[in-house]
Amino acid sequence: MRKIASILILISITLFTVRASQCSEDIMNQINNGTVCQSSDNACKTALDTFIKCVQDCSKDMSSNSVIKICSQVNCSNISNDTVKALYNKMVACFDSVLIFSALFVLVALLF
């Protein structure tokens, strides 16, 4: 029974890792390719620049994903632009996936 549980947890970890990695890549690609905002939407571009700066500030001073997530939620969530707010919500969901992966990894470590 323990062996089956371990296998199921390893499969779950693999799925969460792929999902979290893909999610992060999607966000970075949107930002790097300039596809978050329409080319004529200056309000979106300004909000995006402000948001990116805020997240970068959180990332500089923090060491773990959970701390960066909390910093981003506290300091970077006051977004008035709907497009950038959608990106923010997607980023928070990605952080949640990474944190779930971390919890599963700890659980597997405890099983062995």
Catalogue the unreliable spans.
Answer: 104-112
Mean pLDDT: 75
By DSSP, the count of extended strands is 0
Q: What overall geometry do the principal axes of the alpha carbons give?
A: globular
Strand content: under 5%
From N to C, what is the helix and strand string? HHHH
Secondary structure topology:
Blueprint: H1 2-33, H2 42-61, H3 65-75, H4 82-111
Structural overview:
With 112 residues, the protein is an all-alpha fold. The chain has one domain. The protein has 4 helices and no strands. It has helices spanning 2-33, 42-61, 65-75, 82-111. Helix 1 runs antiparallel to helix 4 and helix 2 (42-61) packs parallel to helix 4 (82-111). It is globular, with a radius of gyration of 17 Å. Residues 104-112 have low confidence and may be disordered.
Short description:
With 112 residues, the chain is mainly α. It has helices spanning 2-33, 42-61, 65-75, 82-111.
Describe the structure using short key phrases.
single chain, 112 residues, mainly alpha, 4 helices, globular, disordered C terminus, transmembrane helix, membrane
